[in-house]
Amino acid sequence: MRKAESARPRRFAAAVPLLALGAALALISGLAGGLVRMGWPLLPERALAPVALHGALMVCGFFGFVISLERAAALHQRLAWAAPALAALGTLAALALQPGAAALAWLAAGLVLTLAYAGVLRRTPVLHVAVEGAGALCWAGGTLLWMLDRPFSVVVAWWGSFLVLTIAGERRELARFVPLSAGARSGYLAVLALQATALVVLAVPWHDHPLAAGAWWASMALLALWLLRFDLACRAGINRAGWALHTARCLRLGYAWLALAGGWGVANALRGMPLDAPGPLHMLLLGFVFAMVFGHAPIVLPALLRRAIAAPSGITLAPVLVMSAGVALRGLGDALGAAPLRAGAGALQALAILAFAAVMLTRLRRPSPPLSAR
Amino acid sequence: MPINPGRGRPADHGAMDTNDSFDADRRKAMDALTQVVDPEICENIVELGLVERLQVEPAIVELTLVLTSPTCPMGDAIIDDAVQALQQAFPDREVRVLETHEVDWSPQRMGAAARKRLGWDDAQG
After folding, report:
1. Rounded CA gap, A281 and A143, in Å?
2. Are A195 and A168 in contact (CB under 8 A)?
3. What global pTM score does this model have?
4. Which of A73, A111, A184, A229 is deepest in the core (most CB within 10 A)?
5. Under an 8 A CB cutoff, do B69 and A173 touch?
């Protein structure tokens, strides 16, 4: 066989086990902390960090790590690899009860990721990269606000926007494959402008400003409606099969949760409740964000790991359905103030994540034949 | 199947030849590349307009791709699959797959069939 050469040197594969460990550590500790908060006695009393830093571990330690890892693998820039490394360092510092050091590491990770996007934008000025870059900036900004001891509802808004804008940018990129009217393009920008305005107002020291909180949640609901109407996954008449169909189903379910979360958040704001009141926030993070993860991972993970994946089966949708059941139960528990319902929801949600991990582990194959053979 | 040269770029007549075996090789290469599919869009990279330039010579096959996004995590996989597809079609030749950033991808690069499947109504212009 003659020489075959691709233009992209492969650096990612060798670091996979170490990097996977970083992600797993953040996810497990964050989940455990969340479950303890809901009454499950999973951790010894001295294990304070996962409970106290549950939100930070999930957003910065896990999602920040995974997102920056994915980007580093795509961009092939040495500097970009510092972002997931710093995110992992932040997790270790958090678990060692050094929240100050963790915050510094996560702030640095967010800034590195933002710089990586800025570099791409200089070369290729496209909207979806700008939106994803804005998401990275929200990660850094939220972490800075956390370090400055701003109300956690404000921190959560910025961190939430990190996740949502990253997804919104990715989906906008894929929306280029289908026709988009001028109205749809403008609508997308208007929704993002609303969210950006809300974030800026929230960051100014008028904490828990109800109008800004309501605007932030309204932007989430409007974004969900935009996605349900214009996203590639929601377009009728497109023939989908296999994992592409699985992805589309997960995304539609996730967008529905985002719409519900946004509507509930607006209703809360109108009643003068803080942005991070129980209910809509977890609906956004667990119902929407995890639906995105469950939908995309079967496509992205095999590509990153250079492994084939077996075709989806009837059981493949189970994790996202169990998660949705947990989100619904959690919503009911939050609305009624019922701790047992919350605890049951937490168990379902943890089960969903474990089930998803099991599905991926059992469906990933080695070695990696060409895409055409899958 | 002719390569879509992309908006504003003239067709690469330097890579075209009326020699029958050369045309057969180009068809063979393009057929091989239709096996490389974007798993989320479910379209092959030829129909998606990712093929910017294809040079088929007796000793080497060189492909230049335009990826749809610099932040797409699928880029490596698509490039690797293109390498494998061309290597399978031409086991006795050197295969090289490059990525260009000089050209931006746009929906106009997609083939007519893909555009129709994805809902574009080109009949209305």
Report:
1. 18
2. no
3. 0.89
4. A73
5. yes
Domain for residue A97, yes or no? yes
Q: Which residues of A295-329 are buried (b: 16+ CB within 10 A; e: fewer)?
A: bbbbbbbbbbbbebbeebeeebbbbbebbbbbbbb
Strands B37-38 and B43-44: antiparallel
- Token pair in block for residue A209: 């400003």
Structural domain contains residue A78: yes
> Cβ distance B115 to A47 under 8 Å?
no
Owning domain of residue A50: 1-105
Chain B nearest-CA residue for A67: B73
Q: Which residues of chain B make contact with A124, given a CB cutoff of 8 A?
A: 70, 101, 104
**pLDDT tens digits, B46-100:** 999 999 999 999 999 999 999 998 888 888 889 999 999 999 999 999 999 999 9
Q: What are the structure tokens assigned to A278, written together?
A: 């129980």
Which residue among B37, B79, B85 places its CB closest to the CB of A6? B79
Smallest Cβ distance to B39: which of A123, A128, A371?
A: A371
Report ipTM for this prediction: 0.80
Q: Do A370 and B84 touch (CB under 8 A)?
A: yes
Determine the distance in angstroms separating the CA of A70 from the nearest CA of chain B, rounded to an integer.
Answer: 6
Please tell me which of the candidates B40, B71, B83 has its beta carbon nearest to residue A4. Answer: B83
Local mean pLDDT, 10-residue blocks, chain A (374 residues): 47 61 72 69 57 83 91 86 92 89 96 96 93 98 95 94 97 95 97 97 78 96 98 89 92 97 96 90 94 92 84 91 95 90 90 92 71 46
Domain count, chain A: 1
Whether residue A12 lies inside any domain: the answer is yes
B111–chain A Cβ distance below 8 A for any pair? no
Q: Is B31 on the interface with A (CB under 8 A)?
A: no
Contact (CB<8Å) A371/B75: no
